Amino acid sequence: MEKEILELKDNYINSIDNVNGLSELDLIKSKVLGKNGELTRFLKQVSSLPPEKRPVMGQLVNKAKSEIMAILSAKQSKLEHARLHSKLSKDGTDASLPGISVKKGHLHPISLVIREIVTLFDRFGFTVKEGPDIESEEFNFEALNIGKDHPARDMHDTFYLTNKQLLRTHTSPVQIRTMLNEKPPLRILAPGKVYRYDADTSHSPVFHQIEGLYVDKNVTLADLKGTLTTFLHSFFGQDYDVRFRSSYFPFTEPSVEVDVKWNDPGSKLHGKWFEVMGAGLVQREVFRQTKIDPDLYTGFAFGMGIERLAMLKYQINDIRLLYENDSRLLKQF
Ligand code: DAH
To answer: What is the three-class DSSP state of 84?
Structure first.
């Protein structure tokens, strides 16, 4: 039996060597190692040998098997390689040329700014809320104490739809939706698209805002100033001064506009103040509209334009660059 095995092995090694095609190689493989292959048959016989002979013969068969397998797989890769080579040379492919790389995308600067702001406010416990782009006149204006005669309601500024609906002009109606649906304490951040009849190098008819709202007992203007200053220092830099100018919004009282002082000696903007958001303490009338008791609760709100923040932070001077999706701009982020 020993001799037979060795002979069989040599024969197969020889015939593997002479094979020229992959299908022929497969055939040999099944003839020797398949379920009823010749070597498999020897392996089955081992168990019927007297016990003292089994280990030696078993080892011999297994050794022959692994030798044949090694030679088979070497031959297989040689044949596969040859087949690929002949295919490539026939269709004129030059395998030595560099490949076509797949370009990888990444987040748009608008998304980056939104995510950064959401992350920073997450530290203060603010969670994200969303509202619809098509909003009712009531939530967009009336409930926010914006009277019928307010200029923001002008046909020239707003995209009105039918049935007293419009494309929201700001993210502030999300404040109303939240206060109507949830009980204080509230800490929410509402990013989203807003729409205005407006277009030039720094205004687009569709742009993005983030609204913030904090309602609890004993919220004061000091909380507003502390929170927004900490946020702006994290977003622009610790060495950017922040100032609060008194202002007017129908839905806050008192109202402020918040400016940061650009601090980059190498930049044309160095030392200039830039307005970055509107804010204020929630108007008592807004609380009344949403059935929150203004004698029990106070709160602050703020709203900022994302494009404006992105243009400042990344020093982009034309808003259209943010919408053209020119990869030469985008790949810089
Ligand atoms: N909604 C205002 C706008 O679009 C921005 C704003 C100002 C939002 C003051 C606020 C706020 O929440 O308190 O111009």
So the answer is: helix
Contact assessment for residue 169 and residue 195, using Cβ atoms and an 8 Å cutoff = yes
Over its length of 333 residues, how does the chain's per-residue pLDDT go in tens digits?
A: 788 888 888 888 888 888 888 888 888 888 888 888 888 888 888 888 888 888 888 888 888 888 888 888 988 898 889 888 888 888 888 878 888 888 888 899 999 999 999 999 999 999 999 999 999 999 999 999 998 888 778 776 899 999 999 999 999 999 999 999 999 999 999 999 999 988 788 788 999 999 999 999 999 999 999 999 999 999 999 999 999 999 999 999 999 999 999 999 998 899 999 999 999 999 999 999 999 999 999 999 999 999 999 999 999 989 999 999 888 888 888
What ranges do the domains of the chain cover? 2-91, 109-330
Q: Is 114 exposed, middle or buried (0-12, 13-18, 19+ CB in 10 A)?
A: buried
CATH superfamily placement of domain 109-330 = Bira Bifunctional Protein; Domain 2 (3.30.930.10)
Alpha-carbon gap, residue 83 to 81, rounded angstroms: 5
CB 158 near ligand 1, within 6 Å? no
Q: Closest ligand 1 atom to the C-alpha of 172?
A: 1
302 lines ligand 1 (CB under 6 A): yes
Give the C-alpha separation, 313 to 182, whole Å: 34
